[in-house]
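Workshop exercise sheet. Pairs work together: one partner reads the sequence aloud, the other fills in the structure field after running the prediction. Swap roles for the next sheet.
Pair: D.N. / O.F.
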Amino acid sequence: MPVISRLVSIALRIGELAFACVVAGIIGSYLHRWDSTNSAWPKARFIYTEVIGGLSILLSLLWLLPFAGGFVHWPVDLVLSAAWFAVFGLLVNYVGPNACGGVFHWGGIVHGGECNRWKASEAFSFLSAIFWLASTLVGIWFMRRVSGDRKVVTDGTHHRRRGFLGRARV
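Structure field:
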């Protein structure tokens, strides 16, 4: 495994871990203060966010270990990227009607306040989705590069597998 791709993978996993921790912390504090007289639908979206955050924390910690396999996890990275995009959509759908400003207006999230906490959770869920997608692309790039280097020698001639995932063109 080349050094540059491994360093990029480690940087992406650290970012995924940090973003998942931030979103899980913000949403977890909101769930802790949840009033049972409110409707169940917002609570369901926040529980989904917590599950995706917890799963992301677990997998990013596991895949930061040096013996964890490398780049073969790209299909799971793609699924988690889609899950984080769904989290982002759910948070945008919840925060949008609450008069907290535009979806990508993240200018004042460092000043405190309820809207700024929601904007921070939106921002970090979007960044997490992007980082998981980048991990997917790095994994696909690395696996295709490694599989392209393998040649099979049978009768003295070199044959190379063609097409995506080794399928020949017909």
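Discussion prompt: The longest strand covers residues 152-153. What would you look at next?
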